[in-house]
Amino acid sequence: MVKLKFILRNGVLVLRISQNKDRYYKRVGYLLTGNPDVEKHWLADKERFSSRSKNYEENNKVLAEYKQVYWKLVTEHPELSAKQVAEYYKGTRHTGSQPVELSSWSVEEYKNSVAKYLEVITLREKAKSGCNYEGYYKLLNRCRRTIPGFDSMPFSTIDYNKMVSIAYIFAKEKAYVHHSKKFRALLGKASKDKDVMFNISQIGDFQFCDYNPDKYTTDGRQHPDVLSSEELKTFLNFNPSDITPRYKNRKQVELYYDFCVFMFHSFFAPCDVIKAKWRDITRKNTIAVRRKKTHRPVEIPITPVMRKIIDKYKGQSKDGYIFPIMDDEKEKTYNTKDYTYKKFREFLNKWLKVVGKELGLYFDLYAYVFRHTAITVALDSGLPVSYIAEAAGTSIEMIQQHYYNGESQSNRERLTSAFMSAAQ
């Protein structure tokens, strides 16, 4: 269990947060008033200032309150490591006498309270290294601002009709997708939490996407960005040594280019390509992985182009990745989860934006376009939707809703030909 103790470290009063051999220190000098002489008046065994110190009663009180904030976290969440406890309030200065950022909780308080449980989830996510808690925090503020009676809303009232009313409230303001995804994730966590009085079956077949105000475009359908056949042909026939001349690191440009070509030939998303390893290659000349986003297993054939790329980078990754991007040991040193992938994707998309201008695209080119384009090309080629959905690791409904090729040039030509043939 994590231990807490005030100590003098190099003449500075700090709160030591320890667990086994791990030690972390939080300076607390800014809490004190009267500039007390800590080396002279600090009682190490009692963890307090002596009565001869200036403002000793006030300083002892504020230190006790400060320590209590961390002690509450340690006792109610013994699963947290010393590092997680130490970094919990990173970037802020909590005085102990001030209220905790989000109110305290107990099982009795949050087991049937949507607002209280959302606070709990926000705090739990914040305590996890590399996790993004801001989404839940923004959702909490949004719900309190826009949903009447949210702070007293019990889980027992959450049903299909209640969800519809919440969806309509979210639809009145921006960031519908962001807030609806977080709210649905909150319900998923609550349903799996044995202490919470909620079951996901309460909302029936409700789906937030049915109430998304941006669901439909002017033609009544939502279409992803895809490359036309000519734009795709131009990209696939590029010479990596000639494109984006302002980029001086030509090996990096070549890596970016091969990465995108691999995405197109595999249906993979960027996160799936970067995590693909040699061990995922089967004896059937396929790659079998589990998609990071949906966790669905997929198996796709290795095309000659993919094989050429795989062989090109063979042995360049010490951890067995197909592309020499990830470094498992280095990744452990980062606080942000998937830091290497996120930085690579950021730089890749910046490069693709320049490539898109060279192609004369009407939209900014980004990595996911190659997955969109691959699915569209497969549909235009007449492959069964069921096979494409399985290979792409998604659902038939999603393919039909977002990718179905009713807008393809080949389909329009076939339709025109069919009408003309009817009169002959």
Highlighted features:
424 residues, mainly alpha, DNA polymerase, domain 1, hpI Integrase, Chain A, three-stranded antiparallel β-sheet, 18 helices, 7 strands
Mind explaining what this structure looks like?
By secondary structure, the protein is mainly alpha-helical. It folds into three domains: 3-86, no CATH class; 107-211, DNA polymerase, domain 1; 229-414, hpI Integrase, Chain A (Orthogonal Bundle). It has 18 helices and seven strands. It has helices spanning 38-41, 56-76, 82-86, 107-110, 114-127, 134-146, 160-171, 176-192, 229-236, 250-266, 270-275, 304-312, 328-331, 339-359, 369-380, 385-392, 396-403, 409-422, and strands at 3-9, 12-19, 22-27, 42-43, 48-49, 286-290, 297-301. The strands form three sheets. The protein has a three-stranded antiparallel beta sheet. Strand 6 and strand 7 (297-301) form a beta hairpin. The relative contact order is 0.06. Mean pLDDT is 84; it is low at 95-103.
Under the CATH scheme, which architecture of the largest domain would be assigned? Answer: Orthogonal Bundle
Give the strand order of the largest sheet, numbering strands 1, 2, ... along the chain.
1-2-3
CATH class annotation of the largest domain = Mainly Alpha
Compute the CA-based radius of gyration.
28 Å
**Which spans of ≥5 residues are poorly predicted at pLDDT below 50?**
95-103
Number of domains: 3
Q: Main β-sheet: number of strands, strand sense, barrel status?
A: 3 strands, antiparallel
In one word, what is the shape? Answer: globular
How many alpha or pi helices?
Answer: 18
Distance between the termini: 85 Å
